[in-house]
Amino acid sequence: xxxxxxxxxxxxxxxxxxxxxxxxxxxxxxxxxxxxxxxxxxxxxxxxxxxxxxxxxxxxxxxxxxxxxxxxxxxxxxxxxxxxxxxxxxxxxxxxxxxxxxxxxxxxxxxxxxxxxxxxxxxxxxxxxxxxxxxxxxxxxxxxxxxxxxxxxxxxxxxxxxxxxxxxxxxxxxxxxxxxxxxxxxxxxxxxxxxxxxxxxxxxxxxxxxxxxxxxxxxxxxxxxxxxxxxxxxxxxxxxxxxxxxxxxx
Length: 250
Ligand SMILES: NC(=O)c1ccc[n+]([C@@H]2O[C@H](COP(=O)([O-])OP(=O)(O)OC[C@H]3O[C@@H](n4cnc5c(N)ncnc54)[C@H](OP(=O)(O)O)[C@@H]3O)[C@@H](O)[C@H]2O)c1
Prior knowledge:
Strand content: 15-25%
Largest sheet: 7 strands, parallel
Number of helices: 8
Mean pLDDT: 96
Structural class: alpha/beta
Radius of gyration: 17 Å
CATH superfamily: NAD(P)-binding Rossmann-like Domain
Oligomer: single chain
Bound molecules: NADP nicotinamide-adenine-dinucleotide phosphate
Low-confidence stretches: none
Distance between the termini: 34 Å
Helix content: 40-55%
């Protein structure tokens, strides 16, 4: 039985990953800030797999206290070290041309994406089993310069470089660290926010036309995460994998 912690596990990619990992008798903690959404996500997992071992823990992973509290509560119930850490906490982001940003927006974006991911890895590290797997969810905005995504692109590129470097350090403990970078993922809150904004819906509407393999859904990304945390990827680390239906070659 694997012990799995998924930040941002109550919606979108994180929840789709929880559904998949619940199939293999894992003990799963899903995290988010909103308890109502957390309860609904837990119920959805149990509806599909009634004997799933799944807990919801409310915490804000953009703060050090939030991450510490999450880990303390998760470890309390696990009864052993963490085998799988998936960082998929999102936030309320709408693409914004750089000159329209404020220092406050810059701070929030860097904190909610880059700093939260680094905090989660840093504070989880002592609780990870040797041989554990980490997958950090970033975005193709960290690979492909995208108008409106300068700041979040910087955060996402930061997640990738951080993860690759951590992979080179953590391999001595046989801990693997990989990154998945979607472009736009349909049926997610992120998708709905982007497509409800006139500027970003125009931009991403064009991008989606280039997805000749089909527009990605959350389960497509979860499938890649499931591979990366599984034994078939036992020798894969430090990789940043685009999942975008062919929108770009990453
Ligand atoms: N969906 C896309 O099109 C897309 C494309 C590229 C990259 N990504 C990235 O992939 C990741 C997941 O995206 P998604 O679309 O699956 O997300 P989503 O559906 O918006 O869900 C976000 C999840 O993160 C939680 N969350 C947000 N802020 C949090 C915080 N500070 N602390 C703890 N939990 C937090 C949310 O719950 P609460 O709100 O209750 O906290 C929810 O569980 C994000 O980093 C996103 O930027 C998504």
